Automatic annotation (TrEMBL):
Protein name from the UniProt record: 23S rRNA (Guanosine(2251)-2'-O)-methyltransferase RlmB
InterPro entries hit by this protein: Alpha/beta_knot_MTases, Ribosomal_eL30-like_sf, rRNA_MeTrfase_TrmH, SpoU_MeTrfase, SpoU_subst-bd, tRNA_m1G_MTases_N
Record's signal peptide: none
The gene coding this protein: rlmB
Transmembrane parts of this sequence: none
Top-level taxon of the source organism: Bacteria
Molecular-function annotations in GO: RNA binding; RNA methyltransferase activity
Disordered as annotated region, ranges: 1-42
Keyword Thylakoid (UniProt): no
Location of the RNA 2-O ribose methyltransferase substrate binding domain: 55-128
Compositional bias ranges of the Basic residues kind: 1-12
Pfam families found in the cross-reference section: SpoU_methylase, SpoU_sub_bind
SMART domains (alphabetical): SpoU_sub_bind
Gene Ontology annotations for the cellular component aspect, listed alphabetically: cytosol
Length: 297
């Protein structure tokens, strides 16, 4: 009996990666190495913002920045879907986005950053003086002042609240306060382009300046007798909020025309809940301080 030839499996040592694998994906987009290369400049170095600029991200924050003619902008990266949604704004500002997939955007900002398909290089906005804001205020106005609040997410959330309730500006100290950053702008969700941030050198002096300009200065203090229900509904009003836990500093409290608290349920103290997040407190106070006859009232 003659021997049957053995059937050997063909060698695939030189076959391309994935060849012969019926489950290999096709059209799955650029490889991680391609995305990494797209996030580097011509010299192979990681792409960084220009001097003094930062990378703004988040769809609403970027959209609002594109609508703001006073905002200085630079390079722009976006997915095809995001580019389509922003087409009219991009055409109006004569901006040609750099096409990018989400992996490339992750490389630019870092894994886990919620960029929503857009990154815009921007420079910080010019910040007006307190005197300029006062001059622009009418007989009925609302301002927010922050005493030693350092968390950029809290400042961003307060900006968003201020935009909702029509406050003219948010004022914070030149020191011990966050600069304009991507995280602050992202949390503000576009409000940074609408509500001015004002830096003040001395909070006590700023309170005096506001009082001379006819503002009733009210501080939020958990030990106050009056509540936010007692806030005046007329005239010019400046609300001051302190850091969570610490609250307003002694000198700040003493300079206020009035102190108010936010009423809390009797059982809150039993649950060791004796204060609100400062951005939540700002929302409650600004709603309570709506001018009489406001369309939001």
């Amino acid at each position: 009996m003659s021997k049957q030839p053995k059937h050997r499996r063909p060698k695939t040592r030189n076959a391309p990666a994935g060849a012969g694998d019926r489950h290999a994906p096709t059209g799955a987009g650029p490889s991680p190495s391609a995305s990494s290369a797209a996030a580097r400049d011509a010299m192979g170095a990681p792409i960084r913002p220009e001097r003094g600029a930062y990378f703004l991200y988040g769809f609403h924050a970027v959209q609002a920045a594109l609508r703001n003619d006073t905002r200085r902008i630079g390079r722009f990266w976006a997915t095809r879907q995001a580019t389509d949604r922003l087409a009219d704004l991009l055409a109006a500002r004569d901006i040609s986005p750099r096409a990018a997939d989400r992996a490339t955007l992750d490389q630019l900002l870092g894994e886990g950053t919620v960029h929503q398909g857009v990154i815009l290089e921007v420079w910080p906005l010019d910040e007006p003086s307190l005197e300029r804001i006062i001059a622009a205020c009418g007989p009925v106005a609302r301002l927010v002042l922050l005493d030693q609040i350092t968390d950029p997410h809290n400042v961003g959330a307060i900006l968003r609240t201020a935009a909702v309730f029509g406050a003219e500006a948010v004022c914070l100290q030149a020191r011990n306060a966050p600069p304009e950053t991507a995280s602050l702008a992202k949390t503000a969700s576009g409000a940074l382009e609408r509500v001015p941030l004002v830096r003040i050198g001395n909070l006590s002096q700023a309170i005096g300046t506001l009082q001379e300009a006819g503002f009733w200065v009210v501080g939020l203090d958990g030990t106050a007798r009056d509540t936010v229900r007692d806030l005046p509904g007329e005239g010019r009003l400046a609300l001051i909020l302190g850091a969570e836990g610490e609250g307003l500093r002694r000198l700040t409290r003493e300079r206020c025309d009035m102190l108010v608290r936010i009423p809390m349920a009797p059982d809150a103290a039993k649950a060791a809940i004796d204060s609100l997040n400062v951005s939540n407190a700002a929302a409650i106070a600004l709603y309570a301080a709506l001018p009489a006859g406001s369309p939001l009232d």
